[in-house]
Amino acid sequence: MDIPTVFADIEPIPQDDGPEPVCAISYSPEFVEAHDYLRAVMKIDERSQRSFDLTTVCLKLNPANYTVWHFRRRCLVALTAVSQQNDGLRDANLPKIDLASIERDLDFADRLGGTNPKNYQLWYHRRALLECLLKACDGKLPGDESTTSVVEIARKELDYVDKILGDDSKNYHAWSHRQWIIRTANNPDLWVSEVEYSHSKILSDPRNNSAWNQRWFAHHEGQLSTRSQPSKTTHRGKSILSFEKANEEANYALCGAKVDPFNESPWRYLISVLTEQWHFAQNSGDAVSIMSYIIGEMADVSALLREYIGKIREMKQSWDEQQSSVSESYGPCTSIMSALVDLLEIFTADELFLNEALILLDDLVEEDPVRRKYWKKRKRAIRDLIRKKHDSQK
Length: 394
Prior knowledge:
- Helices cover 68% and strands 1% of the residues.
- With 394 residues, it is mainly α.
- Helix 3 (49-61) packs antiparallel against helix 4, helix 5 runs antiparallel to helix 6 and helix 13 packs antiparallel against helix 14.
- The relative contact order is 0.04.
C-alpha cells in the first residue's frame, strides 16, 4: 500500500512526544509513516475503505494496539452500513458487520495471533466480531440465506480455541474466550460437550488447573444437574451441584488425586465441591422449614463429608506405608494432609476431628517450611475455637 499516494489529500500528524522526550522510541520509517496518517484519519473520523486498509498496515506493524483495533471495527460497521444501504437493505435486525467481513477479519486476527496467542487485543477483537452474530440472532443469522446456526458458529470458534490450547493448554485468554462462547450460545449440548472437553484436557495433563476450573464452570453455569434432578440455587442465585452430582464430582476428583497425590488441582476441586454442599446445607431453609431441612439434607451432607474424610485417611495411610517400605522416600504428602485438615475443621463441634486436624498441622509445620507461618496460623484458629467451646460449657 502506497500510503502517501492513497492519502494524498490528508496531512499526516506526527507523534507528539513533547519538546524533550525522556526516552524516545526508535520507530521504523514504515511505522512512523503509517501511524502519522492513521492519526490524521482518526482525527477527522474517516471510516472508509482506505482507512480500514490503513489499519491493516498498522496492525501488522503492531498487533497489540487496542486503539487501532477499535477504529478498525468502527470502519467495518460503517462499510457494512454503506453496503446494506446500497443494496436497499434497511432491516434493523441485520448484523452491524456482515458475515463475509467477519470471516475475513477473524482469519486476519488468526494470522496475526499465530506468533503471540496471548495478545489480549486480538482475543477481544474476535469476541467483538462474534458478539453481533451470537447475540443478535435467534438460531439463524439475520439476512443470511445459509443454514448456519448459533451453535455452528460457536463450535467453529471453539475449534479455533482448541487449536490454540493445543499449543499452550494453560493460555488464560483462550480459556476465558472459550467460556464466553459457551455462555453466550448457552446451548445444552455445548455445556455437556465442555465437560467432556475438560475431561480430555485433564487426562492429557492432570496438573492443568485451567481444565479443572473449566469443568467446574461447565457443571455450575451450565446447570447440568438439572437433567437428572432439580438443581439447587444459593441465596445469591448461583447454581450449585445437586447432592448426587456432587458425590460424582467428588469421586472424580479423588480419583484424579490418586493419580498424583502431590497435584493440588484435584484436591482443590474436591474440597470446593464438598464445602459448597456444606455451606449450602447450613445457609438454606426458612424459619418454618429449617429444622426438617437440617434433619434431612444436613445429615446427608455430613455423612458425605465424613465418607470422604475416611477415604482420604485411607489414602494417607497407604501413602505413608508405601513410603516407609522404599529406600528413596518422597516423605509425607502435604497435599493429602492439607486436604484432610480442610475437611476436618469444617466440623467445628467435633473436638476429635479438630484435635486430629491439630496433629496434622503440626506435621505440616515441619514438612512444609515454605508455608510454616500459614500452618501455624491455622493451628491458632482451631485452638481458639476449642478454647471458646470449653469456655461456653463452663
